[in-house]
């Protein structure tokens, strides 16, 4: 038979392949393989691995031994990246992979069994990428299924990619993560970032692998190493809603148990530890809309309810706070057991129909008559005055002989569920629903049969008759052949727990701020803190400067007030404007040696016009007193007439012979620039012109009467009809001329040097 040697040949080939695999499974020195020192840090190991992996990857290297070399690099990195295995290797020199260790290394009896067994050297199940593919979800599944379920169940979302070697490395840790967290009620799913890039972008995934925690539609990125299970558990604990399970001491016990008016059952958690475990936090998150949990940290409360010291115990209370309605005590209470116990006791004896979900749970649909279920509802207002009526029905419900799967009792707020209540009032009926009881039988989602209790529900304590009548009505309606009086369609209940627009805005804002804070790393926090510190420093310095300025202003005001009290006229302090008299000893300082950019404003007067010209000149130049480039002076024409005449001759070379009338010069104002050697002139009778003839008209033959008002450049005969100006009106146009002077539009008369000023 020819197939026999072929079979043995095939088996021999497989044995050879096995021996080759076995030889490959034994690592050489991992430090030499990665080319690092024995004291290398984890960052150095990772950096060396990434560099070698890129060079020796079979898809990138053409070397025939690339596959073998890549396998050695990978195994060396796996060994050294695990602190325990690295320590074992350093102490004992063990190089075999932990998953492949066996007490005996004998040759296998059946090579086929060894090759295809679960624990062979070719088994990469622990690091197989298909493990992530099986748990992978799409964006549609995330939006339609995962996000709604996250309102009660936390989700861990793992982002990966096919060619992500660190993702492969974390596969065993993810398996351990699932084994540890899924029994606690935390689901684990994966997202292929290459197939779902938009979903990864929505969650700000910048590096792989990455784990994201999803709670009630809000995402939180875990930034620590995925291999650290303890850090991940602490991360989940921190991100669960604040004060989900508060501590309850002996002084707080009564207040905590009496808070059932919020329509929630109370639960007490006892543990032989100082902090509540994650399994109870996740359970409290799952039932947070129906049950309020508290963690007991008091030996007095433990002794009161006779709770064992070394066991976990959960007690559930309804309106009767004296004793629990149910309890469970175990060494480690499984999450499934917790969910079963709480689900069966998550409603009060008389709960409020606050949403459609509560209504669906308390009054489920049942169309079959023999199995019909009744829901007894009391219509009340959200007011304390109806508390006795609700308490009366609560007592009836607690002592009711009917099973909970047949009859459930509840109350409703008429003001909040007015559409639901109005849909139960028959057309043409004058039923007043307030403080009345309606008995419902739900045939399907909106179709009901119902009957109103004949009497108004009273709150007095002589209600044996009302109890008896209500019990008779319920017993009658539970019979299969008994029909309810009315039939109709009801409106869905309004969810009283839904947040308003402001509540949603605040929640979204807080979630956004939390996401920003969660997304900030050290590289973002330091620049932000630096910018914030700089802004605060600038504001602080500005505030300090403003404070000092305010103190100075207050000090000046005090000085002014003091000087005002000392002055009989009550005049306030003003900066001084100095008028210098132009003399020979001041000539250099006022004109010749002026600094560049500085000018002297000079008024020409005589002894007779001093009293009339100084005040208007002082008033005109007063606004410019703070200008440090200006100096103000006056000159008696009798003393400086020769200097003035020589100045005009230098500026007007076409007029060699000038006869100056001193009286015509009174009221002239000169702006003298000592550095650039020019002046500008103002006089009430002088109009500036561009022609040389007009420039020459600055001079005049002073033949006329000084009182005639003739000015330099105007002949007395031609100007005899001009208006005579009084001395007090000579400087009326000076403010406008000063404005044009500083605008640079006045005429400038240049010369080569400054003439000497007379000594006498």
TrEMBL record:
Matching Pfam families: DnaJ (PF00226), Thioredoxin (PF00085)
Entry annotated with the keyword S-adenosyl-L-methionine: no
Keywords: Autophagy, Membrane, Signal, Transmembrane, Transmembrane helix
Thioredoxin domain location: 106-241
Cited SMART domains: DnaJ (SM00271)
Transmembrane segments: 525-549
PROSITE patterns: DNAJ_1, DNAJ_2, THIOREDOXIN_2
Membrane topology: Single-pass type IV membrane protein
Domain J intervals: 29-93
Primary localization class, coarse: endoplasmic reticulum
Function of the molecule: Plays an important role in regulating the size of autophagosomes during the formation process.
UniProt protein name: DnaJ homolog subfamily C member 16
